[in-house]
Design brief:
This protein has a domain of 145 residues: Oxidoreductase, molybdopterin-binding domain (Sulfite Oxidase, Chain A, domain 2). The protein has 5 helices and 12 strands. Strands 1, 2, 5, 6, 9, 10 and 11 form a 7-stranded mixed β-sheet that branches. Strands 4-3-12-7-8 form a 5-stranded mixed β-sheet. The structure holds ligand MTE and molybdenum atom.
Length: 208
């Protein structure tokens, strides 16, 4: 197999590398809603749907055979911790977008995960060069607690957008807030803009 292409997330090279209000942690905490799904690797698939000309259904093996990217990035959780210098290997989001032939009407992407979790992001954020579907973390097969077999990594947005246990990628014209977005988190989630909470939730917090 070809050597993975290496990418350093541009956010790592910023002068203000650590976003406002964040503290650096030594380890990556394990955080998610609900239980870790019991995924059988041989049965896992990822599907593309919505505004696509060529809907895909890929097994883990299919995904491993696509060109691989090695990504170095930091991650920033909305709860205030950041973990610097993480490394991941996986498939660039744009590779799947190309293969599935997205309709020009598509503007947003809804990520679906096992157990019903969803998260939404604009297509232009999804197609950045450093957004990948990761299967390897820091040189090891991605463990279930961190989202294995396959999780999204979106380094430039708060880490809740980096869905664990991804099973589907849906391309849509109109935005649809996902699980945490409906629960009061910001719809976009840029850590440098401190887009932590929805405007409504932020007002409630200020009053409290
Ligand atoms: N499927 C799923 N993915 C998820 C979440 C979740 O609840 N369900 N939580 C998000 C949040 S809030 C964070 S901070 C990261 C945590 O990833 P980690 O446990 O690998 O550190 O996963 C994100 N991805
Ligand atoms: Mo988070």
């Amino acid at each position: 197999m070809e050597k993975p292409k290496r990418i350093i997330s541009p956010e790592v090279l910023r002068k203000d590398r650590i976003p406002p209000g964040q503290s650096v942690y030594d380890d990556l905490p394990i955080l998610h809603e609900g239980i870790i799904p019991n995924i059988k690797l041989a049965e896992w698939t990822i599907e593309t749907s919505g505004l696509v000309k060529n809907p895909l259904r890929l097994s883990l093996n299919d995904l491993v055979l696509l060109p691989q990217i090695e990504l170095f990035c930091d991650v920033h959780c909305v709860e205030g911790w950041s973990k610097l210098d993480t490394s991941w290997v996986g498939v660039w989001a744009g590779t799947l977008a190309d293969k599935t032939m997205i309709d020009p009407k598509a503007r947003f992407v809804i990520i679906h995960a096992a157990g019903g979790f969803t998260t939404n992001l604009p297509l232009k954020d999804f197609l950045r060069e450093d957004v990948i579907l990761a299967m390897v973390k820091d040189g090891d097969v991605l463990e279930a607690e961190h989202g294995g077999p396959v999780r999204l990594i979106v380094p430039h947005l708060y880490f809740w957008k980096s869905a664990k246990w991804v099973t589907g990628i849906e391309f849509v014209e109109k935005d649809q807030p996902g699980f945490w977005e409906k629960a009061g988190y910001h719809n976009h989630g840029d850590p440098w803009m401190e887009e932590r909470f929805s405007p409504e939730r932020a007002r409630q917090k200020n009053k409290a």
